[in-house]
């Protein structure tokens, strides 16, 4: 054992910058995602304040367009995606009985590229104006002719960098789930959350490169003078819409599938019953993912694709209702005959089911193209996708966070505050968005910075704004709950809910660095529950106690991401006149871009030249750590 | 991956050294997944190109611009480089480092020749025909698709060169073998992409117009 | 179809009925205690009624063939979806109440793997529901995708969207107008839609769903038809810049005779300001972009007969307008407000500032506003 010596350990900030431990990366994702979620939330509240009364002037028209663009972009790419990745990082390796992910280095790289992409995007607020062409950034509005600030450049380049991080994360989870499962954990014994993480990762792999290309094309149009979307030179703006939605629609399912997984775990645990119709759940998940790639053009019914295309995409979209319905009924029948406990996690899961159904049925309504000619780009659509993303995904994330919080941090969240948080959030949510269906139907189009009085919009908008603030209260209560939870001593019982079914509940909370002292042997679905029912307190080990190989911490992923950040920033300002010959020279000749890329590729080279052999946790150390007997 | 030379595998290394360790197996699998993403990336670029290939505005059209002999030669060179890369992997499976390094070196040289032809081609268009990124939607799509591929070739050349250096310094081990293996996968991938480029961009442009 | 009945009862209730309900509501507001008890009820009722929206703006109160058919589809889908929701919510409520864990319960519930029959049922039923909706959808997709631009009986209109105004030209009659689309009732209007700059979307909720106005090469066709005379609100439904919210227009449906009279009066020679000094300023500063009658340019909105339109700059409503807008102001006041500071009224619009950029004085603005306000067509 040449590498038996313990590796250089970092402390404090350096520990976080260099960590390759999936549990710490999960916390990094949670903090960063939470931060962006907060920013997106404040943007949402500003939007609602502006719309609280007709002809309001809380913000200007330009500021409003920047707010809606950043709200949508931030929430989707930088808010909820990272929180999903936080839960996937925290839970998936534990659920499959793995000591780590397949690529710890890439895992860290994925996080840092996401973070620096997100920071770059948000830097636009203080560097000349945020993007203002909507999160969909339709051309020609997003071209340099009509959007003259650097806002859209921050959007295109920031999202390319952040998207790269997501793609890397997706590949990592696919490989982890394929190769790192514990002995006996066949695909059809995997917990539902792991299944959805797997399918979501596959969707990320096939959807994100498409948007990356779209963003590259738009960047080239704006900075290099290319003509992809410039009609005068033969370009085609509708091409952007196709590329964007070929990514954009799968993205919706990328977001919602993990929530389905969370709900499956939570409902099953707190009903003390195994998931009803597990195989059909798996089948439905895969079918949803597959159909998700076939329906992008339903976002473009009014673009003018002709009746044949509209009819086909209508029918394809409606079909998604079928696998989704299977899931809903399976959850209901998981609870049927069970013994349901309504703690905060399960309350959120219970709130999820009807709320998501409401978002789902409006989705089927929107799928009908001729009716969509009326709904499209109105508040009806705004209501629909908030029901799916907030009422579906965000409620799911809250359920997941309350459920796995003790596992991640070794502390439980307060139930009283949790219930307060649930009720304020869900009442606020329905108050905000239910009424928006009607606003759309009576003629209010979306993305309007204000509206004339006497159109019947005033009262409904006011109610919507009040609801939004109630949701804000719910989130603040959650933050207070988190703060209070850290006053507890660390280290609750490993199986804190007493009815844990899957492998993560078989190890201490929070888990040791190496997760499992001995790799567990999986003997069926709900492996830990099965052992408990057989009268065992622990999993049966699949191997004797021995030294455990661990990857070394490294700063390189951080440095590589900084390099991309510099390169992106440099490229964006290529055509600017700084009134300073040195700066003009550095930016105009791609020198800053070159330096950034040199940092990134140089770090890659270092990574290749100096092999990381990792280090080992010795059996003696294992016993020292007081692993549960 | 059984080869006729399997019997000659050196005793020090397992037959398929790239798959000997979990790290190696993960690397190969992860790289396959990465190539799946790359396929979508190039697929989207191809779709863009096909949408815009007749949108020449005031600039020249594909049939006016392209010269098939140069690109045919480039295609031939890249196809041969794929073959040399196969030989390299066979040498690796035999555990023959010297042969491996030689075949890799030849692959790099062929890659450089391809790149030189491409740079020559681009320079002709840009300098002699004054035909650049900004000329038309077609030119933007052409330079972006073919340029993306060219950048991939350049990256591959640098990557394989560095691996040759590592093979000299560290030898052929279960750590270096997966690296060589995935670089070969990458090289085949960009070769396949080029076959599509040759067909869709050049042949279609020249023949169909 | 209970859903449909309820819906019709609420949204298609005769207007006088509705007013009565509101008045009755108000008279009850006096005794404080009763109010306290009844407030939620009335808020609910008022919401339900206002939820149907304005007759000239709401999808739920269609005034034309296309919008009626679309509402039919909306009602069909709502009915199906409400049924689905009732079933799901019903089962959910039942299990939540019935299967709660009781204190001290320690037995383990039966671990059920699944139920093939049940799973087939909840796959098949949604499939059937979806098929019903799909058939209705496909029928209407083709009906509303029909192109009437070669139909002799249809009136053809070329719609061109600009930042942030609408241009309507009638190729058969050789006239072009802006902001108010004048159409005859009872006839199919064949629209050809395109944009002059960024993407916009043409939407008249009470007459027909929206169609995007794309750039050259992807020009769209659509059609609509108004059953009754009246003024209907139109909106831009695709984010197009700062004043996207203010990019409104009106569709004014008139009798066929009036429509013919309007076309004739549009073709009449331009009327210029009487005062030669004002006429000079108007010609030099306004007609470089705008047109009146046979004079001027095509860059800005055509001003022929602008005094008789429903609004100035689409959002300053004229109280003289035949739509009788609530909160309208005299057309001249609106005109002065607009000409004094267009950027304040419609941020980001492309018109030069009359004072700062064109050097107009307050007196000149007032004179031009008066002239434009008086420029009305009779039809």
What does this structure look like?
The complex is a heterotrimer of chains A (629), B (209) and C (379). Chain A is mainly α and 629 residues long. Chain A has 20 helices and 2 strands. Chain A has a single domain, classed as Cytochrome C Oxidase, Chain A (Up-down Bundle), CATH 1.20.210. The longest helix of chain A has 35 residues. Chain B is an all-alpha fold. Chain B has one domain: Four Helix Bundle (Hemerythrin (Met), subunit A), CATH 1.20.120.80. The longest helix of chain B is centred in the last third of the chain and has 34 residues. The N terminus of chain B is likely disordered. Chain C starts with a helix and ends in a 5-residue tail after the last helix. Chain C has 379 residues and is an alpha+beta fold. About 4% of the residues of chain C have low confidence. Among the domains of chain C are: 49 residues; 99 residues, Immunoglobulin-like (Sandwich), CATH 2.60.40. The interface between A and C is large, with 92 and 98 residues. Chain A: This is Cytochrome c oxidase subunit 1.
Keyphrases for this structure?
B: 209 residues; Four Helix Bundle (Hemerythrin (Met), subunit A); 77% helix; elongated; C: 379 residues; alpha+beta; five-stranded mixed β-sheet
Which chain pair has the greatest contact? A-C, 92 and 98 residues
How would a crystallographer describe the biggest sheet of chain A? 2 strands, antiparallel
Number of strands of chain B: 0
From the alpha carbons, calculate the radius of gyration of chain A and give it in angstroms.
25 Å
Using the 3D structure, state the CATH architecture of chain B: Up-down Bundle
CATH fold-level assignment of chain B: Four Helix Bundle (Hemerythrin (Met), subunit A)
Helicity of chain B, in percent? over 70%
Number of helices of chain A: 20
**The CATH homologous superfamily of chain B:** Cytochrome c oxidase, subunit III, four-helix bundle
Give the C-level CATH assignment of chain B.
Mainly Alpha
Low-confidence stretches of chain B: 1-11
Looking at the overall shape, the CATH architecture of chain A is Up-down Bundle
Q: How far is the N terminus from the C terminus of chain B?
A: 42 Å
Number of helices of chain B: 6
Which stretches of chain A are poorly predicted, pLDDT < 50 over at least 5 residues? Answer: 1-5, 624-629
Q: Report the portion of residues of chain A in β strands.
A: under 5%
- What letter string, H or E per element, gives the SSE order of chain B? HHHHHH
Main location (chain A): membrane
Pathway (chain A): Energy metabolism; oxidative phosphorylation
Keywords (chain A): Cell membrane, Copper, Electron transport, Heme, Iron, Membrane, Metal-binding, Respiratory chain, Translocase, Transmembrane, Transmembrane helix, Transport
Domain Cytochrome oxidase subunit I profile (chain A): 10-523
């Amino acid at each position: 054992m040449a590498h038996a010596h313990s590796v250089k350990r970092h402390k404090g900030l350096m520990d976080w910058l260099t960590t390759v431990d999936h549990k710490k990366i999960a916390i990094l994702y949670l903090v960063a995602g939470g931060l962006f979620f907060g920013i997106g939330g404040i943007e949402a509240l500003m939007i609602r304040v502006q719309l609280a009364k007709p002809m309001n002037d809380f913000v200007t028209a330009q500021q409003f367009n920047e707010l809606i663009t950043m709200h949508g972009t931030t929430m989707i790419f930088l808010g909820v995606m990272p929180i999903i990745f936080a839960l996937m990082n925290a839970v998936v390796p534990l659920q499959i009985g793995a000591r780590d992910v397949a690529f710890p280095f890439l895992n860290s790289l994925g996080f840092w590229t996401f973070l620096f992409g997100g920071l770059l995007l948000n830097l636009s607020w203080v560097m000349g104006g945020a993007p203002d062409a909507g999160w969909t950034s339709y051309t020609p509005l997003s071209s340099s002719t009509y959007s003259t600030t650097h806002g859209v450049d921050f959007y295109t380049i920031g999202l390319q960098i952040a998207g790269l991080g997501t793609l890397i994360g997706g590949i990592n989870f696919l490989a982890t789930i394929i190769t790192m499962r514990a002995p006996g954990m066949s695909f059809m014994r995997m917990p539902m959350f792991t299944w959805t993480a797997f399918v979501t990762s596959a969707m990320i792999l096939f959807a994100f490169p498409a948007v990356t290309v779209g963003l590259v094309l738009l960047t080239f149009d704006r900075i290099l003078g290319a003509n992809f979307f410039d009609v005068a030179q033969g370009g085609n703006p509708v091409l952007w819409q196709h590329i964007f939605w070929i990514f954009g629609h799968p993205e919706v399912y990328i977001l919602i599938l993990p929530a389905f997984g969370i709900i499956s775990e939570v409902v099953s645990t707190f009903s003390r019953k195994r998931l009803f119709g597990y195989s059909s759940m798996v089948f439905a998940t895969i079918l949803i993912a597959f159909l998700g790639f076939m329906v992008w053009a339903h976002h473009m019914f009014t673009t003018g694709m002709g009746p044949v295309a509209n009819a086909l995409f209508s029918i394809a979209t409606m079909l998604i209702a079928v696998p989704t319905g299977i899931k809903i009924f399976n959850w209901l029948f998981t609870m049927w005959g069970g013994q349901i406990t309504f703690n905060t996690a399960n309350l959120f899961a219970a709130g999820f089911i009807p709320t998501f159904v409401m978002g789902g049925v409006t989705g089927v309504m929107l799928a009908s193209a001729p009716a969509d000619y009326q709904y499209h780009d109105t508040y009806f659509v705004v209501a629909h996708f908030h029901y799916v993303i907030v009422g579906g995904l965000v409620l799911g994330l809250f359920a997941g966070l309350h459920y796995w919080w003790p596992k991640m941090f070794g502390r439980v969240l307060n139930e009283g505050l949790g219930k307060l948080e649930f009720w304020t959030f869900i009442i606020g949510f329905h108050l905000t968005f239910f009424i928006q269906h009607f606003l759309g139907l009576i003629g209010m189009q979306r993305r309007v910075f204000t509206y004339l009085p006497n159109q019947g919009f005033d009262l409904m908008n006011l109610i919507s704004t009040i609801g939004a603030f109630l949701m804000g209260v719910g989130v603040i209560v959650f933050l207070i709950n988190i703060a209070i939870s850290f006053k507890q001593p660390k280290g609750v019982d490993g199986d804190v809910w007493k009815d844990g079914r899957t492998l993560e509940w078989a190890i201490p909370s929070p888990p040791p660095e190496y997760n499992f002292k001995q790799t567990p042997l999986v003997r069926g679905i709900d492996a830990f529950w099965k052992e408990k029912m057989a009268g065992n307190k622990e999993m049966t080990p699949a191997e004797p106690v021995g030294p455990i190989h661990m990857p070394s911490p490294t700063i390189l992923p951080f440095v590589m991401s900084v390099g991309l950040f510099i390169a992106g920033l440099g490229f964006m300002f290529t055509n600017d006149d700084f009134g300073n010959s040195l700066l003009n020279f550095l930016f105009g000749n791609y020198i800053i871009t070159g330096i950034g890329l040199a940092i990134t590729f140089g770090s890659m080279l270092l990574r290749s030249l100096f092999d990381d052999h990792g280090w080992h946790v010795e059996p003696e150390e294992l016993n020292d750590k007081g692993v549960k007997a | 991956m059984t080869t006729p030379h399997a019997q000659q595998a050196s005793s020090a290394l397992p037959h398929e050294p790239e798959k000997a360790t979990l790290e190696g197996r993960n690397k190969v699998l992860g790289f396959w997944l990465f190539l799946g993403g790359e396929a979508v990336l190039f697929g989207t670029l191809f779709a863009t190109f096909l949408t815009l290939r007749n949108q020449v505005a005031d600039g020249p059209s594909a049939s006016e611009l392209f010269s098939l002999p140069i690109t045919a030669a480039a295609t031939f060179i890249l196809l041969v480089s794929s073959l040399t890369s196969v030989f390299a992997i066979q040498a690796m499976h035999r555990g023959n480092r010297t042969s491996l390094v030689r075949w890799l070196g030849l692959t790099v040289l062929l890659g450089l020749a391809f790149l030189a032809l491409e740079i020559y081609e681009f320079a002709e268009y840009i300098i002699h025909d004054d035909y650049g990124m900004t000329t038309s939607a077609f030119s933007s799509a052409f330079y972006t698709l073919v340029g993306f591929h060219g950048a991939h070739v350049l990256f591959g050349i640098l990557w394989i060169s560095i691996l040759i250096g590592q093979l000299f310094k560290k030898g052929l081990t279960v750590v270096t073998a997966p690296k060589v293996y995935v670089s070969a996968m990458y090289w085949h991938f960009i070769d396949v992409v080029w076959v599509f480029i040759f067909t869709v961009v050049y042949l279609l442009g020249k023949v169909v117009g | 179809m209970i859903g449909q009945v309820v819906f019709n009862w609420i949204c298609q209730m005769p207007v006088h009925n509705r007013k009565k309900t509101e008045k009755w509501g108000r008279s009850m507001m006096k005794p404080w205690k009763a109010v306290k008890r009844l407030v939620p009820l009335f808020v609910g009722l008022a919401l339900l009624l206002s939820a149907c929206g304005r007759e000239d703006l709401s999808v739920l109160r269609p005034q034309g063939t296309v919008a009626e058919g679309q509402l039919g589809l909306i009602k069909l889908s709502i009915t199906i979806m409400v049924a689905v929701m009732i079933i799901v919510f019903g089962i959910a409520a039942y299990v939540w109440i019935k299967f709660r864990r009781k204190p001290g319960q320690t037995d383990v519930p039966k671990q059920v793997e699944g139920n093939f029959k049940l799973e087939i049922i909840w796959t098949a039923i949604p499939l059937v529901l979806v098929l019903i909706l799909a058939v209705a959808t496909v029928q209407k997709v083709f009906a509303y995708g029909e192109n009437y631009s070669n139909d002799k009986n249809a009136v053809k209109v070329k719609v061109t969207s600009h930042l942030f105004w609408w241009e309507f030209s009638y190729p058969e009659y050789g006239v072009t107008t802006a902001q108010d689309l004048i159409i005859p009732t009872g006839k199919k209007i064949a629209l050809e839609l395109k944009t002059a700059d960024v993407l916009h979307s043409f939407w008249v909720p009470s007459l027909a769903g929206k169609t995007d106005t794309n750039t050259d090469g992807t020009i769209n066709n659509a059609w609509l038809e108004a059953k009754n005379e009246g003024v209907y609100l139109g909106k831009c439904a695709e984010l197009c810049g700062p004043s996207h919210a203010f990019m409104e227009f009106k569709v004014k449906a008139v009798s066929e005779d009036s429509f013919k009279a309007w076309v004739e009066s549009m073709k009449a020679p331009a009327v210029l300001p009487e005062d030669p000094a004002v006429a000079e300023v108007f010609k030099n500063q306004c007609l470089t972009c705008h047109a009146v009658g046979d004079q001027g340019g095509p860059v800005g909105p055509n001003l022929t007969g602008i005094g008789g339109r429903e609004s100035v700059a689409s959002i300053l409503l004229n109280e003289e307008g035949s739509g009788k807008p609530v909160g309208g102001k005299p057309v001249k006041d609106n005109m002065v407000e607009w000409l004094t500071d267009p950027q304040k009224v419609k941020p980001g619009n492309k018109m030069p500032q009359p004072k700062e950029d064109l050097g107009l004085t307050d007196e000149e603005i007032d004179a031009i506003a008066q002239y434009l306000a008086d420029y009305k067509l009779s039809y």
